[in-house]
Amino acid sequence: MDYRIGFSDSNEISNGSCTSCIETLSTPKPPNPEISALRQLSKSLESIFESPDFDYFADAKITISASNREVPVHRCILSARSSFFKAMFSGSAAKEKDAKFELKQLAKDYDVGFDSLVAVLAYLYSGKVRPLPDGVCVCADEDCSHVACRVAVDFMLEVLYASFTFQVPELVALYQRHLLDILDIVAIDDILVVLSVANMCDKACERLFARCIKIIVESDVDIVTLDKALPQHIVKQITDSRLEYGLETPESPDDAHALHYAVAYCDAKTATELLNLGIADVNLRNSRGYTVLHVAAMRKEPKIIVSLLTKGARPSDLTSDGRKALQISKTYQGFRLP
């Protein structure tokens, strides 16, 4: 074997002298064999999950009825990676060949979509957090950076909750950190959703929970909105903290603006009937600077939005952070690339 790495394979003879031609280029360091082996293992396991060629070997399926989709899985791999799946697959019903498990029965407290489920399962197979598929965290607002819009936040929360449910602590920690990094630029209404999911994850998301509580306590979110979005013990914690810090909280639907309340929480028929009475100013702003149309844009109920526009609501009005109702609606609307 020739060990002369970095030298020329011939000698140059000139004027009776002999000079060796030495390569000055450095030789790349060979990869660590153990790391290479682990990468290959990860790649092989990932292919089992991703390639349809391996669906034949799958012995169970997780179904998502809401989107009429299913994901073939391999019980031995998931059982080895997650104590949740090990316990689930050990049950008598689960021992049936090609057993199916409805996702909503596994993750009961928060809706988890197909893309979020795939993200968690792909990690369990490969040990890698793979890049997001195109369009998964993209809202319909062309001017949005898609870093902290509702669509992006929803995806992160779904993965966080699924990771907690399936007992994958390292993925919980990763997505908790992602959310903590963007929390300062998340819309205050979306912070309520983050807080709700952090509460579901209990001690696994203590830092995220505490940070959300602090933000909500210092915000102008009214008591009616808190009551609708959060469990009562958390509402009490927030109101008690506000009293302790001398912060005021609106205490009735009147204080929170009744028309805003109706548009946000009542069914479309009741809300439109109230609007038809014509007894309230549809362009009135609440304590947070939102018009009724701004609130309706978050809910995305076409009947209510049309009724507001016919009653004189101004689509050009801006929120305190410079958004029109159309922009608000777009950030709450997912967009999928073809």
Automatic annotation (TrEMBL):
Keywords noted in UniProt: ANK repeat, Metal-binding, Zinc, Zinc-finger
UniProt-listed PROSITE patterns: ANK_REP_REGION (PS50297), ANK_REPEAT (PS50088), BTB (PS50097), ZF_C2HC_NPR (PS52046)
Gene3D superfamilies reported in the protein's UniProt record: Ankyrin repeat-containing domain, Potassium Channel Kv1.1, Chain A
Top-rank taxon: Eukaryota
Domain BTB: residue ranges: 58-133
Keyword Chloroplast: no
Pfam families xrefs: Ank_2 (PF12796), BTB (PF00651)
GO molecular function: zinc ion binding
GO cellular component: cytoplasm; nucleus
Pathway where it operates: Protein modification; protein ubiquitination
Domain C2HC NPR-type: 136-150
Residue spans of the ANK repeats: 288-320
Record bears the keyword Repeat: no
Listed GO biological process terms: defense response to bacterium; defense response to fungus; regulation of jasmonic acid mediated signaling pathway; regulation of salicylic acid mediated signaling pathway; systemic acquired resistance, salicylic acid mediated signaling pathway
Stated name of the protein: BTB domain-containing protein
Species of origin: Hevea brasiliensis
